Amino acid sequence: MIARFAAAIVLAVLALGSLHARAADVRSGDVAGRFDHWLFVLSWSPSYCEAEGDGGSPEQCSSGRPYGFIVHGLWPQYNRGWPDYCASAERRLAPDLVDEMLPLMPSRGLIRHQWEKHGTCSGLGPDEYFDLVREVRRLIRVPDDLQRLYVDSMVSPAVVERMFRGVNPGMPADAISVTCDRRRLREIRICLDRDLGYRACPAVEARACKADWIRMPPVRPVPLR
User: How far, in Å, CA of 41 to CA of 178, rounded?
Assistant: First the structure.
């Protein structure tokens, strides 16, 4: 009886390993450079820090810097779904490159994670990929009234979207979406084609915030000296 039970456990472990192997085979279908469009993501830093609490990045949440919208990432996308963790000869980033990105992405862990998960699928090397991140951030303007939001506020996601479109001429409504958790505005997601022009992305819009009103925790003001 004990022997049969032990054998059953061994078979279950082998079956689980086989499932993992098949999952890995499926994931190996993601090929660097093979994707349909970009998704540029800006994160509202006060929401991230409040939601994560002690688990948030100290560089981002405990530095005393007045972070508003920061770059979360530039993600290669399929029309449905996305590639991630593509095979790459360059898994690790040079420390100097990481430091150069801190003004836009104020967490070394975030920068490294974005490269490993998304950048490796771009078909670009690390320097080219983060140069592109910087270029897109220069192209996309953030409304001043939002970036300098120093008062805890309730906002309409639809109005926030219109504010972004107002300072980014030519941005259509179906190229941008606002995401939220149950309480807070979390991200602005903007769809771009491979030439960095705006494009519609229904799959992203389907995951947009459905709330009429949502909270935006305030930017921490610069401490007085």
Answer: 10
How many other β-carbons are positioned within 10 Å of the β-carbon of residue 120?
24
User: Domains of the chain: which residue ranges?
Assistant: 1-30, 33-216
- Would you say 36 and 193 are in contact if contact means Cβ atoms under 8 Å apart? no
Residues 37 and 80: beta-carbon distance below 8 Å: no
Span 50-90, pLDDT tens digits = 999 999 999 999 888 899 999 999 999 999 999 999 998 78
Fold of 33-216: Ribonuclease Rh; Chain A (3.90.730)
For residues 223 and 150, what is the distance between their CA atoms, to the nearest angstrom? Answer: 12
Residue 89 per-residue DSSP state: S
Three-state secondary structure readout of 100-155: HHCCCCCCHHHHHHHHHHCHHHCCCCHHHHHHHHHHHHHHCCCCHHHHCCCCCEEE
Taking Cα atoms as reference points, which of 16, 133, 35, 42 lies closest to residue 84?
35
For helices 126-139 and 108-117, give the axis angle rounded to 10 degrees.
110
Say which residues have a Cβ less than 8 Å from residue 113's Cβ, sequence separation at least 6: none
CA distance 150 to 208: 25
Give residues with Cβ within 8 angstroms of 174, minimum separation 6: 200, 201, 202, 205
Q: What is the pTM of this model?
A: 0.85
Assess whether pLDDT exceeds 50 at residue 8: no
